[in-house]
Amino acid sequence: MAPNFGRSISFPLTPARSFSKPRHVRSVSLPGTTSSHPLLANLHARIAALRAESFIPAGLANIHALHAALADLLLLPASVAALRCTTSNTGDRLLDAFLLLADAHQGFQECLLELRQAAAESRAALRRGDTGRLASASRSHHRAEKELARLTASASAISTKCARLNLVAVTGEEAEMAYALVEAAAASAAASAAVFSAAASMSSATSSCKKTTTFIPPFARKSPTPDTAEANVERLHALEQCFDECDSACDLVFRSVVQTRVSLLNIMTPTI
Length: 272
What we know:
The chain has one domain. Helix content is 74%, strand content 0%. The chain has helices spanning 13-17, 38-51, 56-73, 77-83, 90-128, 131-163, 172-214, 218-221, 229-245, 247-268. The longest helix is centred in the last third of the chain and has 43 residues, at 172-214. It holds the Pfam family BPS1.
């Protein structure tokens, strides 16, 4: 199951009203409720789209769209000021987060490649009744699934860390931008975890079907029924096609995450 986004960033308006200093309420208001810039509103729309979709192709497309919106937002002076704020380490934390996220997406691409190859090998082995080749492909499949589980946990941890960033030191318009940037990073990581988990679920379902054929007795394996070998061949082919179609989208997302980090790095280390 793809993880939900229950740990996304929220900014408590109601508790703030019970404080003895109501003048601080405005500084922690939810970004996006009265967005001061169209690009900020666009970013919040992209974040909302991410949280509404975890299916692999749509999820990848939404992550890429979010980073495109983030690239536009990073051009604004207010974003630059928020990231260079001397009283906050937001910029450094975001640099770390996007580095880890880029690594996760690179690992995801490698997993999909290994899963496609394993699916192709399994199809060929099932058609030929080659149990040795099928066992080898199953081991590759299992390794890729374990790596997907690790990547899912890693992306979820990135999202959690971003959501817990302390932005109290940032105030005014800079605070609104800082909140938006951090929320975007958390949403991107959470959506990535959902996509990785969805891929693992698809792969696991197909792998389970394949295992039923692996343990069919030899006499039955010679004349497979439509519900066994041939049906599994079709499922493996569908999985192979799905992951193959995601390849270009995976590359786009990886490049967009890298570009986001490059933009952040350029802001944090201006030329003299």
